[in-house]
Specification:
cNMP-bd_dom, 9 helices, 23% strand, Arc Repressor Mutant, subunit A, Env_Response_Regulators, Jelly Rolls, DNA binding, alpha+beta, DNA-binding, 4-stranded antiparallel beta sheet, 237 residues, Crp/Fnr family transcriptional regulator, 2 domains
């Protein structure tokens, strides 16, 4: 998770301004004392935040909702590469390398976010090299997450992969509770792309997990009844 509270230099100035409880961090004083070109933006479900090939405008910090980072094929089909939850940053790779976006970002739910102008981020980098290192650290975390996902796909059973997905989603909603209720932010087809599990197998797993008393599911509303048991399942498989 690329939470802005995990980086001492790259923090979200809007968090300071709004005293957001979701976003604990704030930009380093070098940036916070500047005339930041910060913007607070809202998007409806299904709206793009940016599209593949768009020029980068800045670093984003999600305050509310869920965002899918998608990669589109030449035939127009897409795969969800990553889900962004409140408290996470995105868009930083394009800012760091000054390149157009290589993926698209789509609001899966109504979304509120803040954006820090790439010009201010670059000014912060010039004044404090540690800001660049924090950006690089975020990219390294992304690479680590991709490696973990690949390892799960290769070494874990589909039951364990699905348990890991539900466990991770629920931790973003509430990091401490053993019982958590949330709407699935993506379709079963997207879940299939994320986990490498067929849609048919996902439907069977939902029924199996319900029969085991691990979850309850009604019209896309998931209740994790025993998150600790999900975690144990991941470790065992």
């Amino acid at each position: 998770m690329n939470d802005c509270s995990h980086n001492s230099s790259l923090h979200c100035a809007v968090c300071r301004a709004s005293n957001s409880h979701l976003l604990e961090g704030q930009l380093d004083n070098i940036v916070a004392e500047s005339n930041l070109r910060k913007r607070c933006l809202d998007f409806k479900k299904g709206e793009p935040i940016f599209l593949e090939g768009d020029p980068c405008e800045g670093v984003y910090c999600l305050k509310k909702g869920v965002i899918a980072i998608r990669k589109y094929g030449s035939d127009g089909t897409s795969a969800v590469m990553k889900l962004i939850f409140p408290g996470q940053n995105f868009g930083y790779r394009s800012v760091l390398f000054d390149k157009p976006h290589k993926t698209s970002a789509e609001a899966l739910t109504p979304v509120s976010l803040c954006m820090l102008s790439k010009y201010d981020v670059k000014a912060a980098i010039d004044k404090n090299p540690k800001v660049r290192q924090d950006l690089i650290n975020l990219i390294e975390q992304d690479l680590g997450a991709m490696e973990e996902k690949l390892l799960l796909t290769v070494t874990k059973t589909i039951r364990s992969r699905f348990a890991f997905l539900l466990f991770t989603m629920s931790k973003h909603i509430d990091p401490t509770a053993n019982t958590v209720t949330f709407h699935l932010p993506v379709s079963k087809k997207d879940l299939s792309n994320i986990t490498g599990i067929t849609v048919e197998s996902l439907s069977r797993l939902l029924k199996k997990f319900k029969s085991l008393g691990l979850i309850d599911e009604k019209k896309g509303l998931i209740t994790i009844l025993d998150r600790e048991a999900l975690h144990e399942m991941i470790q065992e498989d």
